[in-house]
User: What shape does this take?
Amino acid sequence: MQNYTEKVMEHFMHPRNVGEIPDADGVGTVGNPVCGDVMRMYIKIKDNIITEAKFKTFGCGSAIATSSMVTEMVKGKTIEEALKISNRAVAEALGGLPPIKMHCSVLAEQALKKALADYYRKIGKDPSSFEPLDEHSH
Ligand code: FES
Assistant: This one.
């Protein structure tokens, strides 16, 4: 427990943007191959800007804290900016994660990319340059 920063604990205890967006423009679901935890992210996009992001995570405290943080980070960003958000950036925004929990932050980055890929497909663009592979294929 002493390995978690205050910010991680705070986002775990009071996660932001939990829920679903029924009329989302993009939805992405990823499973963590290391532990089996699952995260689903919903985003709304207007004029290339992410206006809303929500998530549901069935996972550990670090997964919940990083989901919460990434939904805060993407709001107001363009798609191109959002695609540059790495799991490390999310972990850093939380003041860091214990090394053994870094894999949890990968879910946040990948769920976001999957949601953006879903949106790309809807508008007829090719997401293959950034879409994460499913966990079974690597
Ligand atoms: Fe599964 Fe953290 S232990 S995402």
Observations:
- The helical segments are 6-13, 61-74, 79-83, 87-93, 102-122.
- The first strand starts at residue 26 and ends at 31.
- Residues 102-122 form the longest helix (21 residues).
